[in-house]
Amino acid sequence: MRERIYEMVEKPVEEDSLSRMYDIFMLIVIIISIIPLCFKFNNRLFNFIDYTTCTIFIVDYIFRISTSDYKLNQGKMSFILYPFTPFAVIDLISILPTISIISHSFKLFRLFRVFKTFRLFKSLRYSRNFEFISTVIKNEKEPLISILVFAVVYTFISALIMFNVEPGNFKNFFDAFYWATTALTTVGYGDIYPVTEAGKIVSMLSSCLGIAIIALPSGILTAGFMSEIERRKDEVE
């Protein structure tokens, strides 16, 4: 029985109609659960949607945690390890917002409403495109991490230089780091900017180098996508 539940809640095999129906049903429930977030007001219908969808999410969570030994293949330890896996954490966070409806008297619980947006991440579990993307990222993990470390170090150095070049315009190091991040990503909101000649020169250099750093992950991911597409084509053939 548990094995059949596991087959149902996991990604469907083409010929497993029950599993495919379950995935479609869960996707519909996830979309419906987000509808109340599109409105600033609340009413009985939205409360009903929240209660109902949250109950379904709880049942789904119980199904998955009760069959986690099939997924993780670590015996009884699977039941302890599974709640800490990324999607299990998302599932749990998706359930928490209903506390804000049950306990209106506690304002703190109302903060959980923002966690409802995490329900959209649940849909990634049923997406083959997400599986494809995650495989590419996993394969290219080492160069991507190297670029990330380089970007963080570069941002820190740029912020440190700007903070000392523009002491009057950047009140604290966080402001300088915020500016360096927007310069690196070439966003440039314009709320914080250098005013001295030296600061402007640093800003120009930072922006030019930022373009090069931002372009590197795109090239790596593109090559990774092409390699994964070719690999899957070879498997089919």
Automatic annotation (TrEMBL):
The chain crosses the membrane at residues 21-42, 48-67, 79-102, 144-165, 201-225. One of its GO terms (cellular component) is voltage-gated potassium channel complex. Its main location: membrane. Pfam families: Ion_trans. GO terms for biological process: action potential. Residues 20-231 form the Ion transport domain. The keyword rRNA processing does not apply. Keywords: Ion channel, Ion transport, Membrane, Potassium, Potassium channel, Potassium transport, Transmembrane, Transmembrane helix, Transport, Voltage-gated channel. The keyword Transport applies. SUPFAM superfamilies: Voltage-gated potassium channels. It is found in: Membrane. InterPro entries: Ion_trans_dom, VG_K_chnl, Volt_channel_dom_sf. One of its GO terms (molecular function) is voltage-gated potassium channel activity. It is a multi-pass membrane protein. It comes from the Bacteria. This is Ion channel. It comes from Anaerofustis stercorihominis DSM 17244. The lineage of its organism: Bacteria, Bacillati, Bacillota, Clostridia, Eubacteriales.
